[in-house]
Structures are given as C-alpha cells and as structure tokens.
Amino acid sequence: xxxxxxxxxxxxxxxxxxxxxxxxxxxxxxxxxxxxxxxxxxxxxxxxxxxxxxxxxxxxxxxxxxxxxxxxxxxxxxxxxxxxxxxxxxxxxxxxxxxxxxxxxxxxxxxxxxxxxxxxxxxxxxxxxxxxxxxxxxxxxxxxxxxxxxxxxxxxxxxxxxxxxxxxxxxxxxxxxxxxxxxxxxxxxxxxxxxxxxxxxxxxxxxxxxxxxxxxxxxxxxxxxxxxxxxxxxxxxxxxxxxxxxxxxxxxxxxxxxxxxxxxxxxxxxxxxxxxxxxxxxxxxxxxxxxxxxxxxxxxxxxxxxxxxxxxxxxxxxxxxxxxxxxxxxxxxxxxxxxxxxxxxxxxxxxxxxxxxxxxxxxxxxxxxxxxxxxxxxxxxxxxxxxxxxxxxxxxxxxxxxx
Length: 403
Description:
It is a single chain. The chain is α/β, with parallel strands linked by helices. 42% of the residues lie in helices and 16% in strands. The chain is built from 14 helices and 14 strands. It has helices at residues 3-17, 62-75, 90-102, 114-128, 142-151, 163-170, 196-205, 228-231, 260-269, 271-274, 281-296, 299-317, 337-351, 380-396; strands spanning 26-28, 35-40, 43-49, 107-111, 133-137, 155-158, 179-184, 209-213, 240-244, 254-258, 330-333, 353-354, 357-358, 369-372. The radius of gyration is 22 Å and the shape is globular. The mean pLDDT is 96.
C-alpha cells in the first residue's frame, strides 16, 4: 500500500472538482473590523472581510475585549482541566447561569464548540432514552447529523421545513414512544427560517421533545438576543435550545439550555463534555460580557438588520442572483464549484475582498455560492466596493444574472 499516493489521489479528486479548500491567512485589525491583513507570498496587504460569522462584530467590542483582559489578569491563561477536574471556574458558572436566564430555562451547559454541543447532547439523549426516535430536518447541520449517528438509535429524515412530511412520520409511532424533533431556526446556507410554533404544535400533539439549534440566531434575534424562538414568543415551548458563542456573540464555544434534570443528565453522561478541557477563562469572560451587553443593547441588531436589507436590495438592483430569504444571510448563487473558487480568488487578488466559496458537501452540488454576511461595521463605502467588484467579475466571467 502506497499510503502517501492514496492521500495525494484523494486531494487531486477534490482539486479536479474545484472543491479543494484553501485557508486565507488573515489577521483581523482590532477596532477596524471588517478590515484585516491578508498574508500571502506577495506579502501582507489590507482587505475587507465579507464572510465572517462574527455577525455583530462583538469579537471587536471594547466591552468584550476589556473583560478578556481582566480575566487574564485575574486568572491567567488556561482553565487547568476538564470541568470535573479543576476546570470549572467562576466564569463558567456565571456564564451558564446567564445563558439559562437568557433562554428562560432552569440550567445551561457549556461546551468547547457548537459542534461538540450538538454531537455530545444528541448522542447522549438517544442513549438515555432507549428506543428514542429522532426526527431530523433534511437540512440539519453536520454536527446534528453526527450526534444522531453517534447515538445509534432509529432516525427519520423529514423534508426540509415540511410540516406535512413530519406529521406523517410522527403518526407512525405510538404516543408513548420516546421521540425528539431536531431542527434549526435559521439555516445558514439558504438563510430560511423554520416554522417553530407549528413544529411545537406537532411535538405536543405527538408527545415529542423539541431540540432547536439556534446557532445562527442567538445574539441577532429577539428583544434580548435569545434567538428566533424568543422573537416568535415560543421559547417556553422548546425543550432543548442549543446555541453558540462563536457567531452573534463573537467568541467561541457552544451550549445547551434546558431543564435542570436534562442538563445534569447530559453533563453526567456525555463523553464529549466529560473528557474535554474546559474553555479558557478569558474566552468565557468575554462571552459573558457579550451576552450581557446584547441582552440590553439593540443598536448592533438594528444596524445589522439594516445592513443586510440594504445589501440584498443593492445586489438585486444590480441583477445579481441573490437567494431570497427572511434572515440576515445573503447567498449569491454561482452554481459551479470551479467558477465559485475562481470568483472568490479574483475578489481577493484584485479587489481585496475576502469571501469564501461555498461548495459541496456544505451545499448540494449545483447550488454553489458565495455567502455574504453584512454586519453593523460594514460601511456604505465597503458596500459600494463590493457591488462594483461583483458586477465587474460577473460580466468578465459571464456568470448567470438574476432572471
């Protein structure tokens, strides 16, 4: 067996399809985001970032940065261990209390990422509920899919946001059979939003738990940034809310919020929680400051909403194929993996605009796109430059415009 050749062949296959991914070596400029410095063989140069998941720019906010500095001065760098072995600091306890209160739940539990939160929580729930059937939306994130697989229980995949399909599947099971409906609020690639209230109606009718992934919504939606369920007034009807600290809140980490017993059971049985070193105090302190700030400040949410609405309108007026949706996500369709990478390479090299190509398996083949994430810190000038660059490249590359 020529192991190195096997690895090389696998990489060549990705490159032939136009799906090989390259890292952009950047350093964000504190206080000037979305400005960043890009490092390449040609040397460093200034760019503007248009694809960050730091949707509100909270990773740059003085309240957050100051809290992180304070935690380093008070506690040092690392947490010192897993949560069970010296790694539960006062910062972790306070953030879990803050998140539980944010979502109106009895308890919350921190994980090192949103991916780990989904994987560990879903797999553990299936093991704690023998025979439990998970009903998973067809467009659920890879972390949810992996968590369901790791639970090794029965699963049913229902058509994306299709209530009739979900109900038809739920009808096949006895009322007393354990069930979990797992879905997201904002789906990050198309930017569409789940009918949460109607899914809760079905869950109550068929005696199922609801597991809602709000990672692309926390911080951004609701009067206090608790997500779409808060905005829609149905947060109390959701059994388990999963969120992230890495997007709207601007840091890193994931969490769940639920009943005290459910959180305690996952804390006690989930290997992905038990055997992982806890988040550093500085990260947790920054997240705590971010959550507290966004509970009371509407300014970031209001401006982000305006920026997304304005960009969608301007792209549409330019004849660029924006995928319509009701959220803050701005997908612009290219529909070819090689052309998608060619487009984003040209944006970076010629215009100093960083946008990541989105190809399979993140999205289905034939739906390749760029995914723009306008934030409150993008100026009108930034938007002018982006539109001009996209217009020029769309013409040069003879890409399909909106009908």
